[in-house]
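To the structural biology subgroup,

Please find below the input and predicted structure for Serine protease, which we are adding to the shared reference set this quarter. The sequence is reproduced verbatim from the submission form. If anyone notices a discrepancy with their own records, reply to this email rather than editing the shared folder directly, so we keep one authoritative version.
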Amino acid sequence: MKEKTSLVLEGGAIRDIFTTGVLDVFLANNITFDQAVGVSAGAAFGVNYKSHQPQRALRYNKRFAKNNHYASLKSWRKTGNLYNVEMCYHIIPDLLDYFDYDAFARDPMDFWVCATDIETGKAVFHRLISGRGEDMDWIRASASIPVFATPVEIDGHFYWDGGVSDSIPIDFFPKLGPTKQVIITTQPRNYRKIPGKHRLLYSRIFKDYPAVKERVLNRAQDYNQTLEKMTQLENDGEILVIAPPAPLKVKTFKNSPQAIQNIYNIGVKTAYNNLQKIRHFLN
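Predicted structure (tokenized):
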């Protein structure tokens, strides 16, 4: 079986503008992959790589950075969703900053998204076909952060953010066949997640979702184990990791356009600093 090239995109809310910068450099330098998987904002922003729309995620995030119709506590209190569903998944891609569904469908790269089944707590992967309809629901599901978003129903099942179950799904593509993987993270290499201080609060919040509760309570341990495995795999030459050089200074929402631009610029610079290494790894 032929070895495929794979791209894995970690989530991280607006930190994924760093990923956007990296992917835009890939587009500008004709660096392509056979398949990609995105988690949370890694999926929501990463689809623009397959649709060949550089700077699109940067553009609309800067444009609506302070817009309460895009993301606000008011929206959260009223609808249960911090990020306004109609604005993010319909008005922006269909009217205000068009998502090129046709280009997305034409590009030969397979693009998968990862979401979490709230009944089982397990990661579920869906391959996007056109970006339209149910595909958009899967993108939304992948980026629906528990507490700050309502679960997304698809075919009678309910899903939350993929980061709950598999923040950096490095084991997904190897199960499908031989592969070389480039992993783009949104935290620096030396980052390790600290176990939450609010275990009792989480237990109460997720009392009706025991499988999700278990995932949330063990997330730091699971995440750090993945990072240790990534270190070993990279040392063995099996994967290549692209990571920010330092923690990215942004908030979950309501960032200034300049702060968002700065994160993008770091992504672009990091990609160019690693461009020859990436080409050598893929070839």
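Summary notes: The chain has a mean pLDDT of 96. The first helix runs from residue 16 to 28.

Regards,
Lab coordination
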